[in-house]
Predict the 3D structure of the following.
Amino acid sequence: MQSDRITILVGPTEKSFSIPEALLMQYSPPLGRMCQSEFKESQTWIIKLLEVKISTFEDFFIWIHVLEPSVNVESLESVLDLAIFAELYIICHLKNQTSDILRAGFFNGRWELKPRDVSTVYNNVPSRSIIRDLCSVSLSLIRRHTDPLKWKKVFEKHAELGWDYFREVQTA
């Protein structure tokens, strides 16, 4: 017997996805609990994630439904978006997979962090998260940036980035 389905409306156009409650609860307790508590979602069985990109949720939707979940995205932006989504909704297995992909991509030179990438991470995830740590480690390994002034705004906007970067440089 399959559990009741939860409707998730994603992005500004509210694209609809239907996911079994038990499956959602298994991978993301915060999302699953939204329909089991005092939240208004528990009456409607509809969760609105209007700030989430549709492409990010589609990647998660595919990931959650395969027999052996694995991330299959090629661009840095897609992996970062999925990693941020996993961080925000406490999807541990997905956090591990995306951090492994990011780590490999940064350290083998496949991807290079840009100021907007770091700003996106620091705007969306809490301090000491694995993605923030990966950003500061990656930045500390790049000794010469092509245009340091591009980074000035990011360091000014995100004071914690300066400390994270300093800590990594000191321990490298």
Notes: The beta strands are 5-10, 15-20, 46-49.
